[in-house]
Amino acid sequence: MTFASGLAAIPKAPAARDAQAGVCTQPYHASVFNISAMSFGALSANAILALNRGAQRGGFAHDTGEGSISVHHRAHGGDLIWEIGSGYFGCRNADGTFSEERFTENARGEQVKMIELKLSQGAKPGHGGVLPGPKVSPEIAQARGVPVGTDCVSPAAHSAFGTPIEMMQFIARLRELSGGKPTGFKLCIGHPWEWFALVKAMLATGITPDFIVVDGAEGGTGAAPLEFTDHVGSPLQEGLLLVHNTLRGVGLRERIKIGCAGKVVSAFDIARLMALGADWCNAARGFMFALGCIQAQHCHTDHCPTGVATQDPLRQQSLVVGDKAERVYNFHEMTLDALKELVQAAGLRHPHEITAHHIVRRSADHKVQSLAQLMLPQLPDGALLAEDLSTLPFIYRNTWPQAARRAFLADVRQLCRHPMPAAAWPCRAPRGPYSAAVPDAPRPGR
Ligand SMILES: Cc1cc2nc3c(=O)[nH]c(=O)nc-3n(C[C@H](O)[C@H](O)[C@H](O)COP(=O)(O)O)c2cc1C
């Protein structure tokens, strides 16, 4: 069973301010369920081989993660989404800056179907990463373009752009260099004005990404400080709805697809998130379980007992590629079969037709409500382009005007009731506007 989500070459309804730009010339029809970003380095060679073979057999996409494209990604020819993180692995100069030549060489490869610029991930927003030197094998070094045996660092911020406008220009450049492949970005929503700044930059430049992947704070990782995994970032439902709603509010939703990730493991998870505006879902740990992960939580020690998250050649032998590739394929297939049954039971033909009215939740002992009643109301198309925002939910009424397309930070003094010196930010940044605007949102399904 395959449900596809297409990144079309020509938008159905081009936004008035943006009629020409932001359109890929090599569209890709993704499955509604794909393998989320996990690097070779975080995962073993055998894990990458099994994931890609499963993806190839099932016709779905395999996100490379920041660690770029290795020989193991290429062995079976499954569709790849190439993720570009702040370390520019696979497309970097020796000093760690972005290399157009190396990017072009990799991005034009037939197996690469989409380009995903990574801003942040839900398990550690705003935090960089490091693959310790002992794990940087010759194969990993070759894929990433870094020296063997040396700590491999992903900085917390990008060096190729510094403002939302520069970021849109960078996306346009990546799309052009890739030969017109769908190019988008992945982020976990933080302060709403940072996201709004990106949308204002889209409007100002006329450049739109082809897709956005929203990651939830509940998302997994191979390694991150517990404070970040447990407490930083917006949960998926709220982040997804904010992105979907804002794009509708500026008339860009028809031309930007939305993917999402964060504890997606079942057909119902997919249905619930598509009801809130997602075009497709990605899973990381779900596919790790298919590989045999038992959540021993030793990813960062290189002592993974199942061979999934280790570079130790001996330990990797416990993951038999042919056997696990079959399980990866089956997990995708069976999940989509279950999704088909849900869709049919609701009298629909495609999961895209599921709406927030179809998903019902118990919100209190004696109260049952649909997601449509529980969540932030959906914005009408173009609502944020109107002069008068006074009838919109608080988050748009209050925060949208404060966001600046030339900076990720809003003028916090305007957001506070009691003005404070800019230097006092971010430790005293107001929490009110966002949390107050997403009231009583239900927790994810399980
Ligand atoms: C082992 C592992 C490695 C990951 N590596 C990356 C990565 O390189 N880049 C990235 O954007 N996200 C990475 N993620 C996060 C996932 O792609 C995804 O955004 C999120 O964690 C949802 O995962 P879940 O399905 O496990 O909840 C990783 C997650 C795991 C579990």
Low-confidence stretches: 10-21, 413-446
Largest sheet: 8 strands, parallel
Any idea of the CATH class of the largest domain?
A: Alpha Beta
Terminal Cα span: 24 Å
Shape field: globular
CATH H-level superfamily of the largest domain: Aldolase class I
- How much helical structure, as a percent, in the residues? 25-40%
Provide the number of structural domains: 2
* Architecture (CATH level 2) name of the largest domain: Alpha-Beta Barrel
- The counted number of beta strands is 14
- Average pLDDT metric: 86
CATH topology of the largest domain: TIM Barrel
Quickly count the helices. Answer: 16
Strand order of the largest sheet: 3-12-11-10-9-6-5-4
* Rg measurement, Å: 21 Å
Hetero groups in this structure are: flavin mononucleotide
Q: What is the structural class?
A: alpha/beta
Beta strand %: 5-15%
The helix/strand order is: EEEHEHEHEEHEHEHEHHEHEHHHEEHHHH
Fold and architecture overview:
This protein is of the alpha/beta class and about 450 residues long. The chain folds into two domains: about 5-355, TIM Barrel, CATH 3.20.20; about 360-435, no CATH class. Helices cover about 35% and strands about 15% of the residues. It has 16 helices and 14 strands. The strands form four sheets. The protein has an eight-stranded parallel beta sheet. A two-stranded antiparallel ribbon has the order 1-2. A two-stranded antiparallel sheet has the order 7-8. α1 (about 45-60) packs across α12 (about 320-345) and α10 (about 285-290) packs across α12 (about 320-345). The radius of gyration is 21 Å and the shape is globular. Mean pLDDT is about 85; it is low at about 10-20 and about 415-445. Flavin mononucleotide binds next to α10.
